[in-house]
Amino acid sequence: MTDRRKDRPWLMRTYAGHSTAEASNELYRRNLAKGQTGLSVAFDLPTQTGYDPDHVLARGEVGRVGVPVSHLGDMRRLFQDIPLERTNTSMTINATAMWLLALYQVVAEEQGADLALLQGTTQNDIVKEYLSRGTHVFPPVPSLRLTTDMITYTVNHLPRWNPINICSYHLQEAGATPVQEIAYAMSTAIAVLDAVFASGRIPEERRGEVVARMSFFVNAGVRFVEEMCKMRAFTRIWDRITHERYGIEDAAQRRFRYGVQVNSLGLTEAQPENNVQRIVLEMLAVTLSKDARARAVQLPAWNEALGLPRPWDQQWSLRIQQVLAHESDLLEYPDIFEGSHVIEAEVAALVDGSLTEIGRIEDMGGVLAAVESGYLKSRLVSSHAERRARIESGEEKVVGVNCYESTEPSPLTADLDTAIMTVDPANEARVVAALDSWRDNRDETRATEALAALKKAAAGTANLVAATVECARAGVTTGEWSWALRDVFGEFRAPTGVSAARVAVSAGAGTPLAAVRDKVTRTAEELHSGRLRLLVGKPGLDGHSNGAEQIAVRARDAGFEVVYQGIRLTPEQIVAAALAEDVHCVGLSILSGSHAALVPDVLGRLREAGAGDLPVIVGGIIPKADAEELRAAGVAAVFTPKDFGITEIIGRIVDAIRTANKLEPLEVSA
Questions:
Q1: Which of 18, 538, 584, 595 is catalytic?
Q2: Of 62, 174, 328, 418, which is most buried, counting CB atoms within 10 Å of its CB?
Q3: Cα–Cα distance between 255 and 253 in angstroms, integer?
Q4: Which of 207-211, 214-218, 265-269, 325-329 has the lowest mean pLDDT?
Q5: Neighbour tally for 331: CB within 10 Å
Q6: Residue tagged active-site, from 44, 149, 542, 655
Q7: Could you say which of 18, 55, 544, 595 is catalytic?
């Protein structure tokens, strides 16, 4: 056998963070001791969207889906006893990326680190936030300025840092096809590079350094041959764009550098043990092909459709990577797909389709114009609706969901309440108290002056990183930094894409949707209301709007008048809209775990307004015990990922309306 030199493994990460900086620090140190080779920080939603833990919109969200970082003290505790000079840290942060990088830099300085040696990534891709993830704060143009400022700053001061990680991951979660995922990510990269080079802050001879620091974060679904071809297409298109559009001659600087988290959209609540083999297949998509292999991989856990994974669940996912890298012979071979006619044909088709879509976006004026017009969002909502329709019809098989549904009892989920990790509800009060103490003990004059300087810089054209770093040193909080920029830049509510989404499910005679349409029509007639009206609400800071959008689209197609105002609403705003629009049902979508705090608030406000009989339904990642408590509190129905039939859900919404209005049941199957 020929002696082969093994390739170097990719960075192995788990996406982690919860409760407090102290608890997350302990988790990080344990994971590093288990062989994890990089950190991937999950921030909670208030931190991601620029709110302090004591803001009304932060209620129920503090420490839920990540770690709360409100100021320099939190960042110190998060990385205590972790030498940043020798750690590769990925921070999944976008709208507030500049702020979190400033905090990270100051902590590194306090550790005595050489900033030139800091390695890691800030995601810093705001475009996909408008389209899929929903943690945007500022309008597109000033958001692009923040990104540009970070890139020009890091190239000069943190030369080994990746200041942007253009993220197509959430685009696929929102329904993007491989062509859309490639095209929208590449269009974002073009917008960013155009802005950086137009800033005048990068000399012509250093353009290659900027391109070399651009990285990507992609998704890999279970169709692993197609996904592997997608990565080869990504590589080919990036090389072409950076060479032809930007004149980068150094092939090493043009290399497509990407990390990956494999698909969470396809993880199921039903038979969740099947998620393990899904995760393995998805990992193979981004590791089998040496010429397009990921530089960093983080895997979800088998139970993410149930709730927050425990440390043991994350360890299982880490071990999956380690077995592949260290026990298999994967890293001993050159690219095993080179010369394959089948692979080459699929890659060529993806390249052609993606370049066509990139050209269409360019003709619209670029990716920001395509965001503001609603074109990109409506395309994603339509693609997602079509995928869901294929699953509901059985055309697209999901084992354990729409086929092979019979199952033995699973020891993994015998006790669902212990199969996931829960965050102590009292944690939020402790975090808020610590924030109050921080504010009481800082130099208030210095903090005030730092914020004034930041606003002045934002109103002008200066690079904002220096003013942001001074805010970090001065003890400014996450919310204060964000509000200072809101005062200058304003805020942005992204298009929902619902009204322009195409009809994806047939309502022809004899179809399930036709039956539901009949129920909607007959119920509206009995209530003498013209049309049934459904309010779809996203309370709190959860920006995962895919499910809410699909419910809104299908309800529209079933004959409902749908009121959907997008994400980030308070319970007070949702109740006010329900009363103003005189709706027949309120549907709440929450995937962040804040349902226990926010849903009872909505119910209480409806009762106070004399609308306590208005049915409220809830959908999201909701553990069984929580669902029982919500129903006991007055919720008419609770839907979780196992309820994949959207048409059936709409039918059950009609049933809830009929029950609330004391109408006889309609025996019409959906």
A1: 538
A2: 62
A3: 6
A4: 265-269
A5: 18
A6: 542
A7: 544
What's residue 497's pLDDT? 64
Is the pLDDT score of 197 beyond 50?
A: yes
Q: Write down the pTM of the prediction.
A: 0.90
Does residue 624 carry a catalytic annotation?
no
The widest CA-to-CA distance across the chain, in whole angstroms, is 81
384 is catalytic: no
Residue 270: which of 160, 172, 405 has the closest Cα?
405
Residue 366 CA to residue 361 CA, distance in Å, equals 5
Active-site annotation holder among 71, 170, 377, 384:
170
User: Do the Cβ atoms of 314 and 16 come closer than 8 Å?
Assistant: yes
Of 15, 104, 184, 258, which is the active-site residue? 15
Burial of 662 (0-12, 13-18, 19+ CB in 10 A): exposed
CA–CA distance, 601 with 575 (Å, rounded to integer): 10
Tens of pLDDT along 232-286?
999 999 999 999 999 999 999 999 999 999 988 789 999 999 999 999 999 999 9
SS3 608: helix
Q: Is 538 a residue of the active site?
A: yes
**Inter-CA distances, 274 with 324, 404, 410, 420, Å:** 19, 11, 11, 17
For the chain, the residue count is: 670
CA distance from start to end of the chain: 62
- C-beta atoms surrounding 416 within 10 Å: 15
**Span 501-519, pLDDT tens digits:** 667 677 778 888 999 999 9
In the DSSP assignment, the letter for residue 163 is: -
> 258 — phi, psi (to 5°)?
-145, 150
Is 436 a residue of the active site? no
User: Is 375 a residue of the active site?
Assistant: no
The rounded Cα 620 to chain-centroid distance in angstroms is 15
**Catalytic residue from among 51, 153, 169, 564:** 169
